[in-house]
Amino acid sequence: MKPTFQPQLVNDPFGDPALYVEFLFQKRALLFDLGDIHALSPRKLLRLTHIFVSHAHMDHFYGFDYLLRVCLGRAITLRLYGPAGFIDRVEHRLGGYTWNLVENYADELIFIVHEWEGGATMARARFRCRRTFAREDLSAVPVENRTLAAEPGLKVRAAVLDHKIPCLAFCLEETEHVNIWKNRLEELGVPTGPWLQELKRAVLAGKPDDLIITAYWRDGTIPRKRRFTLGELKRKILRIVPGLRIGYVVDCRYDPQNLRNLQAILSGVDRLYIEAPFSHEEAEMAREKYHLTAWQAGDIARRVGAKRLVPFHFSARHQQNPELLYRQAAEGFGRPLSS
Ligand SMILES: [Zn+2]
Ligand SMILES: [Zn+2]
């Protein structure tokens, strides 16, 4: 089954990092990092609902003003997520302008900003246009199993990495697809009906196989029902296709703790976008700057079992020879970077 979302890097590998993820058949998108995003048209920016910012170094957050400029005066609520200190960063950015005439805007832009330090809750604040974007602290929300955002069909999980400051890595996970084999259902002698929705919900919620699911239908005017275990229905009539999983990893040092944190969210990921700024020969400099080399990026992708690797966020020092970084990433990965 075709995945419901389509990821695309906004810039070339030397440009600021930003990954735009568009939803098929919906005028809607997510964004990972907010560096220079001028390559995105206003039409595309207006589709954004959630933005995940790894950290507030300039190359990852500089695009906030452009986003604000495009969205101002529109009825939009944008949810932003970032690491420790992120709410302050957004507050300062919004505090850099004069807002004396926005109180009467008919359409209100609202930012709901979330800040996760890696624990069981996430701090939140709201910034509303008509209130001149003054900070309004909201109650913290729970974070279970590293999940920052979840809705039917997808979730985004995160890990805190060491980049001398906290930097978030993300994994966008599409919910698995639960398909019904119609012919097998017929063989079972049970018609389709609303009970199948209940069955799908039970699978997606990860209910145990001994859960009883009741199929009910009408035979003319006679109500009928039959009971099955969830496990039996899974075997006989369901085809469960795992959803697409996309990893996004930027600035971090190559060390065991960062690797453990990445493994917690990226195991078996379908596609991994990962920074590869430096060459293998620059490993010492990469370490001092709390960044990865291309080989290390490939090695991380191999260790987490990524199916496909997309290295990016290259240092300008390799502008003349990006092939070197691609080659070393592939060496670390242990196989070619197929497209
Ligand atoms: Zn950085
Ligand atoms: Zn960076």
Automatic annotation (TrEMBL):
Keywords carried by this UniProt record: Hydrolase
Keyword Disulfide bond among record annotations: no
GO molecular function: 3'-tRNA processing endoribonuclease activity
Record's keyword annotation contains Hydrolase: yes
Top-rank lineage group of the source organism: Bacteria
E.C. no: 3.1.26.11
Top-tier EC class: hydrolase
Protein known as: Ribonuclease Z
Native organism: Methylomarinovum tepidoasis
